[in-house]
Amino acid sequence: MVGLLGAAGLLLAFGLSREFNGLDWSADTFLGLNLGAWSVATSFLVVFLIVQLVLNARATLERERRLVETAAALRETGAELERLARVDPLTGVLNRRALFERLGAEFRRSQRYGRALTAMMIDLDDFKALNDRYGHATGDQVLAACARAIASNLRESDTVGRYGGEEFAVFLPETSLADGEFVAEKLRAVVESLEIESPDGAAEGIEVTISVGVAAMPDLGTPDEQALIGRADQALYQAKRAGRNRVVVADAPAIPTPRTAVSEAR
Questions:
Q1: In the prediction, which pLDDT does 12 show?
Q2: For the whole model, what pTM was predicted?
Q3: Collapsing DSSP states into helix, strand and coil, what is residue 94?
């Protein structure tokens, strides 16, 4: 439009500068205008069209830039929404759904390649009493502090999530039962050493301990991830019954004696 309007304006200016009566229709004119005027008008038309093309290109680039920025913002928003859907908002670790998705994937990989996988169930000791004494806001603070302490003492390949309430689950790929017990003891000591300020201003602060149950595969009697987490949970209850603030390793499941072996023994 800029080019067309510019050229039309020039032609109109040239036309108004001449008398329309008795127009010269000789070979050196076209529509009564000198060919030189047409040449100048054409030159300006080309210039105006180039300017218009440049403006159009800039507008197109600006639209594309805005589209790219919008797409990037949408991707970031989608990623953030996905992260929020997988993260427990209080503790910052995985929520229960994401936790079991990860466990299922790790269990299948462990089965496929015959690799070790250790599972831990962790429970804060006497958490109800802590809530009753200090209030739920302080209880939430303690949960978040424990989650951070656990997560910061694991490898990047490990997984920690909130199982529910004051319970956490940890999965350690490529980790034997003995190594898993060592890591569990390390986590127990780290949590025990936490310094959490008491809301009532007590100098000693809030003391927190955890009990941990540990189980691992591959071994007999662990057909799926639910069985693995169930064995770690049983070990956790044993730690609770044994006095809390300790690590208990799940007993190896009993190996059934084959019928042929029984017959031969008889």
A1: 58
A2: 0.67
A3: strand
Q: Does a cis peptide bond (omega within 30 degrees of 0) precede residue 173?
A: no
Q: What is the pLDDT of residues 106-124, one digit of tens each?
A: 999 998 888 899 999 999 9
Q: Is 173 within 8 Å of 156 (Cβ atoms)?
A: no
- State pLDDT tens for residues 217-234: 876 457 788 999 999 999
pLDDT in tens, 48-102: 788 888 888 888 888 888 888 888 877 777 665 666 678 999 999 999 999 999 9
**Residue 166 appears among annotated catalytic residues:** yes
Choose the catalytic residue: 69, 76, 166, 197. Answer: 166
- Pairwise CA distance, residues 20 & 211, whole Å: 105
DSSP state of 24: -
The CA dihedral of 98, 100, 102, 105, to the nearest 10 degrees, is -140
d(CA 247, CA 155): 20
Q: Closest by alpha carbon to 14, among 35, 47, 102, 121?
A: 35
